[in-house]
Design goal:
The protein is built from three helices and four strands. The chain is α+β, with helices and mostly antiparallel strands.
């Protein structure tokens, strides 16, 4: 899977879901709750980011998050059909993507204008910004 973050600029992360399970682990400490403290059961989705860095990302889903995911899927028949087709398709070869990125020409730095009448060139084009959540 590919992921982008507003905090990382145009960095494209490559990763995979490594595990999904129910847990009562405290999200802030990743430890079991202390005796006498009740922690709600959450679904933990562990994702392994493999390129350009190696990170483990843990997403704790509350019941409302899971309900929203299921509701969006169940109320959208086109998404169900595309999901079934997607389920039976092959994974892409990410090795080819890494080779293409490595061989891509490097962009030159934008030079400062030389005089009051010169206009700087347009910024290099790339993927658009990630839309913010409403």
């Amino acid at each position: 899977m590919f992921m982008r973050s507003t905090g990382l600029g145009r960095t494209l992360l490559t990763g995979k879901v490594s595990n999904i399970f129910a847990t009562t682990v405290v999200p802030s400490t990743l430890e079991e709750p202390q005796e006498g403290v009740t922690e709600p059961v959450r679904m933990m989705m562990m994702m392994e980011i493999v390129n350009p860095v190696h990170w483990t990302v843990r997403a704790f889903l509350d019941p409302s998050d899971l309900r929203k995911i299921v509701k969006v899927i169940v109320t959208n028949p086109i998404l169900i059909l595309k999901g079934i087709k997607f389920f039976f398709s092959k994974d892409p070869d990410y090795g080819e993507l890494a080779k293409a990125e490595a061989s891509a020409p490097k962009t030159e730095a934008v030079k400062a204008p030389k005089g009051p009448g010169s206009v700087p060139s347009a910024a290099p084009k790339g993927p658009g910004a990630i839309p913010s959540r409403a």
